[in-house]
Write a structure and sequence with these properties.
- The protein is of the alpha+beta class.
- It folds into two domains: 74 residues, Helix Hairpins; 135 residues, Cupredoxins -  blue copper proteins (Immunoglobulin-like), CATH 2.60.40.
- The chain contains four helices and ten strands; from the N terminus they run αααββββββββββα.
- The strands form two sheets. Strands 3-2-1-5-8 form a five-stranded mixed beta sheet, with no helix packed on it. A five-stranded mixed beta sheet has the order 4-10-9-6-7, covered by helices on one side.
- α1 runs antiparallel to α3.
- It is found in: Mitochondrion inner membrane.
- InterPro entries: CcO_II, CcO_II-like_C, Copper_CuA, Cupredoxin, Cyt_c_oxidase_su2, Cyt_c_oxidase_su2_TM_dom, Cyt_c_oxidase_su2_TM_sf.
Length: 230
């Protein structure tokens, strides 16, 4: 999750978010090299006592500064398109969870042939003895297994919302009457926080998202306990 004074991206806890972090660093490196080169050429031209007309009107030079940017754009485009393809890939999900946005809480539905269960998740307002993050903790966390490809189907029951968990690299608009989807997988157990990222009314700031990832064996015990209680 984000910490005070943080300027960079949050630490990636999913495969997609790790690749997004690498892609960000890759793009920043290319942009810094371009900026440095352009600055050097600009200073050189400004400080030069005279300009060579054969250099300025050189067809070879014009060809070079047309072809080189084209290859730079290709080096930038291919990783971007590959990453977009991975983000849209939802083949063979191990678990499907439907997320429904309401004013101002989230509803989660486990939608599988072997496990159907739904619950609401509200922000915790009152102070308790347990350590809680202000305006980020909820009464019912969404419990999910690690090392599993999870598909989220996202919609809304009233107005526009946006379901976003930055550390997992997932964000999708919740639109009434429309079903969006994102998928994720993480190998790290832990609790990950997010918030509604679309202004949806007076309590927009009080729609936190909390996902708790646990090992598969513990998750099966969690499911068994729910099935027994029902």
């Amino acid at each position: 999750m984000a910490i005070w004074g943080q300027y960079g991206l949050q630490e990636g806890m999913s495969t997609i978010m790790e690749l997004l972090n690498y892609f960000h660093d890759y793009m920043m490196t290319i942009l810094l090299l371009i900026l440095s080169f352009v600055t050097y050429v600009f200073i050189f031209v400004i400080s030069s006592p005279r300009l060579d007309k054969y250099t300025v009107d050189s067809h070879v030079l014009e060809t070079v500064w047309t072809i080189v940017p084209m290859f730079i754009l290709l080096f930038m485009a291919f990783p971007s398109l590959y990453l977009l393809y991975l983000m849209e890939d939802v083949s063979s999900p191990s678990l499907t969870v439907k997320v429904v946005g309401h004013q101002w809480y989230w509803e989660y539905q486990y939608s599988n042939s072997w496990f159907n269960y739904s619950f609401d998740s509200y922000m915790v307002y009152e102070k308790t003895d347990s350590p809680l993050y202000h305006a980020l903790d909820v009464d019912n966390r969404l419990v999910l297994p690690t090392m599993a490809n999870i598909l989220f189907l996202i919609t809304s029951a009233d107005v526009l919302h946006s379901w976003a968990v930055p550390t997992l690299g997932v964000k999708a608009d919740a639109i009434p009457g429309r079903l969006n989807y994102v998928s994720t997988m993480t190998s790290y157990s832990g609790v990950y926080y997010g918030q509604c990222s679309e202004i949806c009314g007076s309590n927009h700031s009080f729609m936190p998202i909390v996902l708790e990832f646990i090992p598969m064996s513990n998750y099966l015990d969690y499911v068994s306990n729910i099935l027994v209680s029902e």
